[in-house]
Design goal:
A hairpin with a 2-residue loop joins β9 and β10 (217-222). The strands form two sheets. Strands 6-7-8-3-9-10 form a six-stranded mixed β-sheet, sandwiched between helices. Strands 2-1-4-5 form a four-stranded antiparallel β-sheet, covered by helices on one side. Helix content is 39%, strand content 25%. It contains nine helices and ten strands. The termini are far apart. By secondary structure, the protein is of the alpha/beta class. The radius of gyration is 18 Å and the shape is globular.
Amino acid sequence: MSDVVLKIEHLVKRFDDQTVLKDISLTVREGEVIVVVGPSGCGKSTLLRCINALEEIQGGKILLNGSSVSRESRNLSEIRQKIGMVFQSYELFPHLNVLDNIILAPTKVQKRSREEAKVEALALLSRVGLLEKANSFPRQLSGGQKQRVAIVRALCMHPEIMLFDEVTAALDPEMVREVLDVILGLAGQGKTMIIVTHEMQFARAVADRVIFLDEGVIKEEGEPDQFFDHPKTERAKEFLRTFTFERKHTHS
């Protein structure tokens, strides 16, 4: 068995008096791709934000390769560097060109030489089909291009795990594919990833394991074929029916 990269034990997250995540336990092994699905508002994005210590947790623990990830961790900034996070909203600096957006953190935070970071950034841009955009500014890019730059920026930090939060939600349908292809490529290279998505066909194609989250708990988990073809719980069946209904309508 490959090594455990991330271990979540009995995680509890509350906002005021509302408990958003209730007793979540999850183990992610090296090279594994976990896809988290579930209805809007069920806590999927919050789960990712807790893993990255962007949210404080009220119970349980999160361990990245044995180190505790929490706001209290003395070496939190070091731990955070090992967790690549790609958001729905790209978060690129508008005043920096693509290349400078990518090499800012490797040079400032990890103190790597500009030359070394640049060589790697250009190689990664080439891999996602954006080499010719290295000197462009974010405003000159399409949504799909910005999202691919955001992925390259995260990869350039050499994270041990990548988190993707609804990265195609804000994109036009024809741009979705180019971003999903990049993520599929990363899965093929054995990157450890947790992906929150509404794209069910993509989830099925990329996942080693699907986690179905609802009302702050893991209602079901399993291999993609088993989850999509033979869901065990009534709630999962009901959730998946909404997607088959949409598909029928989009083709009519």
